[in-house]
């Protein structure tokens, strides 16, 4: 069952195309930080305008809780930045409904772009956006002829600006960005080319139980690294010193290990420190970790072991860093694995998760990988095998 894509929509000329984009970018004093999300939406916007459609863009920005939040959470700077990126005029409407918005839409010509104010301004009046208020979704849908969802970052939430609009339209299509996320995090993981290796790391086992369980059936090997390693160590009776552990998940780790047979591959050595500090003295332990030390990264032998498991893989999905990559002295494991993935030219390599994405971007290995997800929470839920409401609301072909 494949989804309707924006490129399947014919005769866009003169149509008012409502587009849910993810313009939730960091803004400080009116200046945009990382603009990757805006850039990622350009192919869909350009496709619509190149084909004579009128692109009416909706996005949320941050969380709007008080009237005062509005000043710093306006989408105006993003609309201005979008105009620069597109090299054309973009109309910004400082309202989420009403005569001003309706008139601005009526004045649009074919190929024009309009940005509606932050959809979450509607949350001040009884959480209408985040609560998917039926009247709001219906109203927004009434402003256009067709709907395109290109916001993967909010696809795991049923909000008025994605699910609400979609359910009030005859046709809802996926944008090119959403199409890519479905292809890699959905299809490539659901029906992977084998050998399929999952790399799971990050801080806690409890955050990743759903992902481990879902991938355990599908993957040929599951590499475990990062903070969750030491709960698995504890389950195996390996000494962990002061390393991160979730006592209440040790039994679960035992069950997973029993169920997985030799599918789960754990680190064989770890870079440990006496305190959670980049400058703390370090020592590498193989197996048992001495009292007074905490593991903050996987060690060099583990990197070699993981490379050996990965070398023939055809599909790799990676969620969760191998160590505390934010501190340069504990980033080597994550970097080593990332760099090696970049050399696997025959494999489809996919990264999901907020910190994992930050890690591959910061460490400069992102360009060599097949797909880096644009959604943190959404990518995790997708990797758990859950149905994401924002994707479910897109029409099937
Ligand atoms: P993602 O956002 O990609 O799903 P997580 O949020 O699960 O990833 O995990 C990322 C965090 O895990 C990072 O902040 C990293 O510092 C932390 N982490 C990784 N390894 C360890 C470790 N050995 N001890 C403590 N924290 C760790
Ligand atoms: Mg995280």
User: Beta fraction of the residues?
Assistant: 15-25%
CATH architecture of the largest domain: 3-Layer(aba) Sandwich
Strand tally is 17
User: How many structural domains does the protein architecture include?
Assistant: 2
Structural class: alpha/beta
Mean pLDDT: 96
**Gross geometry:** elongated
CATH class of the largest domain: Alpha Beta
Tell me which oligomeric state these chains represent.
single chain
CATH topology of the largest domain: the name is Rossmann fold
Distance separating the two termini: 7 Å
Q: List the bound ligands.
A: adenosine-5'-diphosphate, magnesium ion
Characterize the main sheet.
6 strands, parallel
Largest sheet, spatial ordering of strands: 5-6-4-1-7-8
CATH homologous superfamily caption of the largest domain:
Phosphoglycerate kinase, N-terminal domain
- The total of helices stands at 15
The low-confidence parts are none
Radius of gyration: 23 Å
Question: Care to describe what's here?
Answer:
The chain is an alpha/beta fold. It has 2 domains: 6-177, Phosphoglycerate kinase, N-terminal domain (Rossmann fold); 184-383, 3-Layer(aba) Sandwich (Rossmann fold). It is 37% helix and 17% strand. The protein contains 15 helices and 17 strands. 48% of the residues are buried. The structure holds adenosine-5'-diphosphate and magnesium ion (MG). Residues 354-355 line the site of magnesium ion.
């Amino acid at each position: 069952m494949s989804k309707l894509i924006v490129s399947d929509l014919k005769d866009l000329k003169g149509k008012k195309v409502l587009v849910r984009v993810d313009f939730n970018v960091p803004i400080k004093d009116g200046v945009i930080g990382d603009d990757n999300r805006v850039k990622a939406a350009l192919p869909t916007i350009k496709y619509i305008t190149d084909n004579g459609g009128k692109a009416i863009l909706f996005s949320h920005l941050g969380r709007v809780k008080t009237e005062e939040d509005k000043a710093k959470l306006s989408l105006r700077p993003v609309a201005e930045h979008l105009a620069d990126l597109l090299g054309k005029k973009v109309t910004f409407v400082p309202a989420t409904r009403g005569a001003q918005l309706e008139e601005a839409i009526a004045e649009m010509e074919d190929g024009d772009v309009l940005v509606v104010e932050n959809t979450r301004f509607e949350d001040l009046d009884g959480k209408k956006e985040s609560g998917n208020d039926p009247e709001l979704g219906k109203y927004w849908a009434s402003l256009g002829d067709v709907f395109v969802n290109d916001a993967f970052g909010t696809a795991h939430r049923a909000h008025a600006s994605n699910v609400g609009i979609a359910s009030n339209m005859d046709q809802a299509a996926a944008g090119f960005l959403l199409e890519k996320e479905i292809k890699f995090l959905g299809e490539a993981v659901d029906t992977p080319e084998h050998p399929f290796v999952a790399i799971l790391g990050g801080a806690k086992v409890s955050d990743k139980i759903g992902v481990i369980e879902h991938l355990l059936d599908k993957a040929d090997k599951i590499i475990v690294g990062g903070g969750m390693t030491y709960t698995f160590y504890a389950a195996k009776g390996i000494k962990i010193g002061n390393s991160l552990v979730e006592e209440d998940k040790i039994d679960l780790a035992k069950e997973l290990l029993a169920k997985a047979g030799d599918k789960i591959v754990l680190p064989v050595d770890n870079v440990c420190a006496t305190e959670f500090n980049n400058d703390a003295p370090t020592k590498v332990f193989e197996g048992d970790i001495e009292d007074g030390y905490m593991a903050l990264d996987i060690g060099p032998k583990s990197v070699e072991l993981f490379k050996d498991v990965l070398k023939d893989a055809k599909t790799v999905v990676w969620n969760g860093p191998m160590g505390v990559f934010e501190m340069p002295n504990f980033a080597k494991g994550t970097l080593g694995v990332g760099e090696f993935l970049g050399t696997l030219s025959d494999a489809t390599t996919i990264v999901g998760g907020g910190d994992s994405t930050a890690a591959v971007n910061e460490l400069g290995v992102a360009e060599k990988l097949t797909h880096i997800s644009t959604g943190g929470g959404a990518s995790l839920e997708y990797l758990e095998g859950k149905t994401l409401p924002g994707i479910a609301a897109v029409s099937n072909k």
